[in-house]
Design goal:
- By secondary structure, the protein is an all-beta fold.
- The protein is 2% helix and 55% strand.
- The strands form seven sheets. Strands 25, 26, 27, 28, 29, 30, 31, 32, 33 and 34 form a ten-stranded antiparallel sheet that branches. Strands 5-3-2-1-21 form a five-stranded mixed sheet. Strands 14, 15, 16, 17 and 18 form a five-stranded antiparallel sheet that branches.
- Strand 7 and strand 8 form a beta hairpin.
- The longest helix is centred in the N-terminal third of the chain and has 10 residues.
- The relative contact order is 0.14.
- Bound molecules: beta-D-fructofuranose.
């Protein structure tokens, strides 16, 4: 086990702010050093949102998994990130893996997976609670589960708590120990005698990958959505194009029948290159999602590792469920990032071309009335490099291409998007992290671009025939503020 010196690590983080490197993002959570991944422990206590995330403070490998922690009241001003939870004993010596957060009697509590391997490399996983202390460290407390249940491998992790009818349950990512390992989730109920395994909710997906990670069980009115991250699904023409997926099925969870009833097909939560392991906070009727901008087992695709840091979290997104589909919108608090003095109105009629100079960080809203056009290209131009969002109205396919970038991974992502007359986009363009929301959140795509040169990008909209009308707005966005919070 590495030596985790919270004070020294926190001081090093504080001295790394504000970020200097031109690939560091301004309004995406990240760290000055080390590798971050899954958002963890999301909860709201005493007027503050608590955001934890997986972190290796010692390098850019998937090792030494700890939890970092920030607080915010508004998703714009944040406390300086700190180390909150780290390996200390035989249970979690190989990682404090992902888990959730909740509030009990005013305290922020966390529920996480302890990961340990013995000398032979045999893994054990246990699920443990902890409480955030005034000094910013999590005190480790009781175990809910000491080990994984019979019939499943030790890949049991990422507990997420939910309540139904006043009772508390957890959903846990798991792998059934079968000839062909099978990804699934397990549901447990809290009883006086401890946490009782109710079983796997039945579904109609069949064999669906060899492992499911990071489940969330959400309630939207009458409906339930089971979010999870399956591993082992082959790519298809218009979906499942990343190595691993993050998505959901929506339906009705029957705890008595232990089934997801009348559920939708599996739908992805994001169509970009860099999105995984999302976690959702349910607070005052809102569903606020953070995702990890990154992908397991693809670390070499991200050139910031040469600078000693890697990955970001997405912006907070607010989810709504309509007709079996989850819509994602940027959290409304993010409007406060708009710098009102640096804004441009985008307006044109009967045009095949529109250009605008972006800012160091930008938000772009575009309503495109297609008119005679069949294809539209929205290009982010970085000198000779470019990333292109191409929409074909005939095939109803949106394609994102990083083929013309030099650094980082390249390739295409394409998905079906129905735009009849109006194509609507909302883009958040940070230094390297880009999030694009399509058709008012019907789809969203997160991806990194690592421009070779320190260039503020230009935006170009071109079409194969005159567009009836383009209207929109462009804002410079302020950076997140990190500092002391009351
Ligand atoms: C998902 C994941 C989780 C695990 C964590 C470890 O990215 O593999 O299943 O708890 O990362 O960092």
């Amino acid at each position: 086990m590495e030596h985790f010196d919270k004070q020294a690590i926190d001081a090093k983080v504080a001295s790394g702010l504000p970020y200097q490197h031109r690939w560091h993002n301004r309004f995406h959570l990240e760290m000055p050093f080390g590798l971050i991944n899954d958002p963890n422990g999301l909860c709201y206590a005493n007027g503050e949102y608590h955001i934890f995330y997986q972190w290796n403070p010692f390098g850019c490998e998937h090792k030494n998994k700890s939890w970092a922690h920030v607080r915010t009241r508004d998703f714009v001003h944040y406390s300086v990130p700190e180390l909150a939870l780290w390996p200390t004993d035989e249970h979690d010596k190989d990682g404090c893996y992902s888990g959730c957060g909740f509030v009990a009697e005013g305290n922020v509590r966390v529920f996480y997976t302890c990961n340990a391997k013995d000398a032979q490399g045999v893994r054990t996983s246990s699920q443990r609670f902890g409480t955030l202390q005034a000094d910013g460290a999590v005190k480790k407390e009781e175990f809910a589960l000491q080990t994984h249940p019979a019939g499943y491998t030790a890949h049991c992790r990422d507990p997420y708590l939910f309540t139904r009818h006043g009772r508390r349950y957890m959903v846990l990512g798991a792998q059934a120990d079968e000839a062909e390992p099978r990804g699934t989730v397990l549901i447990y109920e809290e009883t006086e005698a401890g946490w009782q395994l109710l079983g796997e909710p039945a579904h109609r997906l069949g064999q669906f990958g060899y492992m499911w990670e990071c489940p969330n069980l959400l309630q939207f009115g009458q409906y339930d959505a089971l979010l999870f991250c399956p591993q082992g699904l082959p790519p298809r023409e218009f979906d499942r194009q990343n190595l691993y997926q993050a998505g959901y099925i929506a339906g009705h969870l029957s705890l008595d029948g232990m089934a997801m009833l009348q559920h939708t097909k599996f739908q992805e939560l994001d169509r970009g290159f860099d999105f995984y392991a999302p976690q959702v906070l349910q607070h005052e009727g809102r569903h606020i999602l953070f995702g990890w901008m990154g992908m397991p087992d693809c670390d070499a695709d991200y050139p910031t590792r040469e600078q000693g840091w890697q990955y970001s979290l997405t912006l907070p997104r607010e989810l709504t469920l309509r007709q079996g589909h989850i819509y994602s919108q940027p959290a409304r608090e993010l409007k406060a990032l708009r710098i009102q003095q640096q804004t441009q109105t985008l307006q044109a009629k009967n045009t095949q071309r529109l250009e605008a100079d972006l800012y160091t960080g930008s938000e772009v809203l575009l309503n495109i009335r297609l008119g005679q056009a069949h294809t539209v290209d929205l290009t982010l131009r970085y000198g000779l490099e470019k990333t292109v969002l191409h929409y074909d109205r005939h095939t109803q396919v949106m394609r994102i291409s990083r083929e013309d970038m030099h650094a980082g991974a390249r390739g295409l992502r394409q998905f079906q998007l129905y735009a009849d007359e109006m194509l609507t986009l909302q883009l958040f363009i940070d230094r390297t992290a880009v999030e694009a929301f399509f058709q008012h959140g019907e789809e969203v795509a997160s991806f990194f671009v690592f421009p070779d040169k320190d260039i503020v990008p230009g935006l170009e909209l071109t079409a194969d025939a005159p567009l009836a009308e383009v209207s929109g707005q462009l804002w410079a966005l302020d950076a997140f503020h990190y500092g002391k919070m009351g």
